[in-house]
Request: fold
Amino acid sequence: MKRRTRKAVILVVCTVVIAALPVAGSLHYTRQQVMQTSQARLDEAATLVAQRVETVLLTVEAALADNVFVARHGCSEALIRRFRDRTFSIPAVQGLGYVTKDGKLACTSYGMVDPPVPARLEPMTTPNGSIVWFLPPAETAYAPGVTIIALHRMRNDNWLGAAFAPESLTDGFDLDGFGNHGYLRVELAGLTLATIGTPHPVAGERLGATKEVGIYEAQVQVSADRAWAVEPWRQNALVIAGVGGAAGLTLALGAAHLGRKRLSLSAELREGLENREFEVWYQPLIDLQHDRCRGAEALIRWRHPERDLVPPDLFIALAEESGVIIPMTLWLMQEVGRQMGPLLATDPSLHIGVNLAPAHMTNREIVEDARRIAGEFGIRPHQILFELTERGLIDKPECREVIDELGRLGAEVAIDDFGTGYSSLAYIEKFKLDYLKIDKVFVGAIGRDAPAARLTQVVIDMAKSLGLKTIAEGVETEAQVHYLRERGVDYAQGYIFSRPLVADDFRTFVRIDREQGLAAAVAQQHLEHGTAAGPA
Ligand code: C2E
Ligand code: CA
Ligand code: CA
Reply:
């Protein structure tokens, strides 16, 4: 080959390679992206079902524990009535029954079983060490249509049983959108409790996600066809190839831009902190049993120079992600000390709630900061109520140590948004907590025909069984106040009493509450803010 021709060939090859590289690269990249997105969808589905399964198992376990006391004396009209009542009020449970130690079903929520029938129960232990046993679906003897039975052995060796449907474990899960071979399986101690769909027959063709269920030795598996996972990519491959390098470049630029934007937002947060752009608002906390204001929850707001007042929902997640939450909380505690110190010092019955992030729980500094700030402003440590979501209760020794130390300091600890994190009772019990804040969704469900309305009662019962004081969040109506008060919930917070207030307004609220009573404070506050009238 002539030298010149060789040169030309090399040039062409190089050009083709250079042109093809971005095309191949972007094809490969987008395929991986699509696979990752599909994998993430499977992971998310498995996580959601696992949370659901834990809630159901927990609810069943709670229903059994809840009846032990009454059931100890054997079958009676009272027990049947209670069974019936519990069956109606606890969504997952379809029926309750009493099985004698010789294995005869003696009564159920339907009535007496006369003569008692053999229950043919071959219990199988769940290795979480609890007293709950499960029966394989195929062996279920009584109640037709009921497929899973949880049994609880009482001290007198008789059994309490709760029946629940396998569908309750997978409620709300939809296989549509997972292709032809979408598949879901729920297992407990190696036993299949529920399945939906059929898996791809060839193992190598399946893409799957597995999620363990909290304290129960249960597992949720979700799988789909590999072909399903790459389908969106296949459909667009031509376009991707066409756009080639440009797509890759755009993606790369896009990612860089996004990264920079997030970075600059968190930089803006730090700057805002330095420039004192944040404010603390206070939402009154009401003692429901005595109609008194007992303090407030401190809620942060951002008075952004170019935007309106920014609510925390828009920046807390980013503050947590970027670590700014640590100096931000420190600033907030100091501000609370400065604004509320004198009031707290003169009225030891007032508490201020401070929200903590998961990052605080692996870092003992919060304990020292609280001690120092309390000392500096003459606040008694028990007047600080740290609020921590279930998400923050991580199973690490440091976390328990931080909670223990806060307790030793005298501060109080509440579990926030309770009921939304799907932590089990057994898990929560491991931590030294003082209060449980019942999440808004359960309060909002009161009086409605939603399944959550029945769960509200279960959540209150759970709090009671843990021996914790309760705070209901997001209380908006008179009917909710009535319901919560009747059921012995200790405290409440919500728009019916007051929205979050600036420091001066909160001090006025407390003053009127002390001088003229709660109703006057609530009415004055609604008048001032043009909101709905409060409770009479
Ligand atoms: P949260 O701790 O659950 O706070 C309660 C939220 O519910 C507040 O929203 C409050 O204004 C709102 N709320 C109160 N009563 C009612 C009601 O009757 N109905 C309804 N629909 N909502 C009500 P906000 O102030 O926007 O705070 C949102 C979340 O931001 C808080 O939820 C908390 O998780 C977080 N947050 C706020 N301040 C801080 C902070 O200083 N540190 C940390 N780590 N998180 C904070
Ligand atoms: Ca809170
Ligand atoms: Ca909350």
Notes: The radius of gyration is 29 Å. The chain has a mean pLDDT of 82. Residues 283, 299-300, 311-313, 316, 325, 329, 332, 355, 357, 416-417, 440, 473-476, 493-495, 500 surround C2E (ligand 1) (CB under 6 Å).
